[in-house]
Amino acid sequence: MPVILLNKPFQVLTRFTDPKGRATLADYVDRPGFYPAGRLDFDSEGLLVLTDDGALQHRISDPRHKLPKIYWAQVEGEPSAEALRRLAEGVELRDGRSAPAEARRLPAPTVWERDPPIRYRASIPTTWLEIILREGRNRQVRRMTAAVGHPTLRLIRQAVGPWSIAGLAPGEWRDAAPETLAAVIRGGGRRSQQRRRRSPPRR
Fold it and tell me: Are residues 107 and 146 in the same domain?
């Protein structure tokens, strides 16, 4: 049950083809038979897990297995303790109340420059948050931060279960260490470092 960990760049579709000619996973991953386990929005960045095993793909992406997903969100403004409490307890969204999460302020992380960069406004500061979810609704982090008055300007998924993007530049991928699969099958586990591998984008 091999697994690939990709640091998906900004504005890349989480699929291998696109009739409109936008960037897709095929520009970065050249391993036939692999498919994403879960989605990551076109305008979001960070860890995308791919596998060639259907049962494992389902286990990773199905929120019933409560695999934690760690996001770094750069939001507009400076969230108060009350806003963080609301994120942690769950907020009302169009499709129902979100499950309890973990939310905390994060010192500005050292991350790659985004192209194009976010739009800065001198009169409005930005804040980085770490948000940990165990469910996976469409554009959930963005909708949650907007619901508490702090729209997300940039979103990076840093980890899924035992896997992280540590050491991967945008567009790079590596094979996950086989022993991390046991942690996922057991229902979670700590993140670990795996061997780095580069696959340059095809143009």
Answer: yes
Report pLDDT digits (tens) over 150-166: 999 999 999 999 999 99
Structure tokens, 125 = 């500061």
pLDDT reported for residue 203 = 43
CATH number at residue 50: 3.30.70.580
Check whether residue 63 and residue 51 sit in a common domain: yes
| Neighbour-count burial of 182, counting CB atoms closer than 10 A to its CB (0-12 exposed, 13-18 middle, 19+ buried) | exposed
Q: 187 pLDDT band (50/70/90 cuts)?
A: low
Say how far residue 148 (Cα) sits from the centre of its chain: 20
Full domain range(s) for residue 14: 1-67+161-203
- Whether the pLDDT of residue 126 is over 90: the answer is yes
d(Cα 82, Cα 42) in Å, to the nearest integer? 30
The CATH number for 121's domain is 3.30.70.1560
What would the pLDDT profile of 58-97 be if each residue is shown by its tens digit? Answer: 888 877 777 899 999 999 999 999 999 999 999 999 999 9
- Nearest by Cα to 195 from 172, 175, 165: 175
Active site residues: 41
